Amino acid sequence: MYKPQGEAALADTFIDIAAFHDLAPDQHDFRAAVIEGLSRPAKAIPCRFLYDERGSTLFDQICELPEYYPTRTEIAILRENAADMARAIGPEAQLVELGSGSSAKVGILLDALDRPAGYVPIDIAGEHLLAASRRIQAAHPALHIEAICADFAQDFDLPANRGSGRRVGFYPGSTIGNLEPGEAVGFLAGWARRLGQGALMIVGVDLRKSASIVGPAYDDAQGVTARFSLNLLVRANRELGTNFEVANFRHRAVYNEDTGQVRIDLLSLVDQVVTIDDRNFGVARGEALHVENSWKYTVEDFQALADSAGFRPMEVWSDQRTLFSVHLLQAR
Ligand code: AVJ
Asked: Which atom of ligand 1 is closest in space to residue 174's alpha carbon?
């Protein structure tokens, strides 16, 4: 994988951002996670490994799918309410985006804000992050951009606040849904502390709804979501030298309307053996390799969760069909 190397990588391009900090964990982390995940009785690999460069590109394609309502609904909510959000945020804000990906949504906020001072995009996919940061810089020449290539769940210090405005965490996309509800509390509590008392946070949260809408969003007709999940095995084969037979696994997404959990697994279609280094792991026909969760919430349940994490729910915006919600929270 191409990894930009600090300032040097920026020197040969037309548009520079202020800084690129490479804090990405090395591959050792992936190897250890795959070995640990295959060793468990219920096999699982953490979903953060879905986002290598190819995974990030496939995810961008998911966002364009007719079945995948979250992205376009959230963008419409942001557009519709950007002026309200900007008023609540005030001038010279510093935006910190968790999992910025292609930075497609933050532009809506930046355009609405009064002289935004700083933007700190954080993403694990370095090449994607740098390209997106440069696009934002081209559109907002006065903005101070410090990109951080990291897993946003990692522990690191944020750059000093720019300008006199508020610090605002921006966590769109319902990425919070990857976490179990209990983990989500701990995660948000960590960000309340890191952003500081009085800071704001804007969080996109997918809402509970009928399985007839949620199901196809995670198992689309074109099979892009399946390719996205299966890319985890492709990546392991390339980076770790595993011998996953990708055609012997099938993507499966199950939505539980009673709990709000979408559970995504790779199902083994045959009895097979997977080798990593010199260790063999048997995978039985019908056995599941768990790769991702996507939890859905009611507005009330999410507000209660945020409250227990140290955030005061200030405002919530939704669409007419109440498919998706965008929450404004304030760190107590
Ligand atoms: C990036 C976690 C928000 O849960 O909707 C989409 C990931 N996985 N399709 C989601 C995802 C398969 C997505 N999040």
From this structure: 3
